[in-house]
């Protein structure tokens, strides 16, 4: 259940029977809704309200933008829908109070929506026929997708502002705590949007008496550049120059990614209307042992 993500089982459409003290693993495909609810309005609402908080002002009582409730809760039973709503409201209220202790509880509903646009809740139904028991369990608190510190400018603006009377903080330390809480909150998350998977484990047989596995002219490009849209993927094929048998580690790659936005309204953007917000770099994870094995063969 999500305002943004649609989930379908990758294999089959049921978890099946689980024996006592056993576990089962399910794999799901997650894709944006075809008629995806715009997340921009909700994120802008939260950003505007938190800007007021960081400036020490009074937050108005306006409510967050509504979302398509049928997508979030595709459950026909009114009793279960009530349970889901009550459970999530309780969980969100506790999390906000823990994360933002200096913001009055009475203002929470006017700042933070019940659902983050990236939220994904999982409702699991279970049944024990032999005992005549059944029930359900809600797994909440999952946010999918990469965002790139959308509150960065608001935080920097507040840090550079002159100290004035603040209705949320009585001391400079409390003011810094509020800034840090906003910087670390889920609405300002920051992450590298690119995931790299190296396809490895191949075993190649080659007659080295005829020369290297690949002649030097076919080693290919060492640097690849491309642009990816959200949820898009691309496969890069590279060639290795291997002169003798053995196992060769595939752990010398580096991926640099840049995320930003297109606009022509600000001098901060380049001639193409692009402004980079963040740059990331990643390599093989610690303990990665991806490799390719080359075996020598000879003519019979």
From TrEMBL:
<protein>
    <submittedName>
        <fullName>Uncharacterized protein</fullName>
    </submittedName>
</protein>
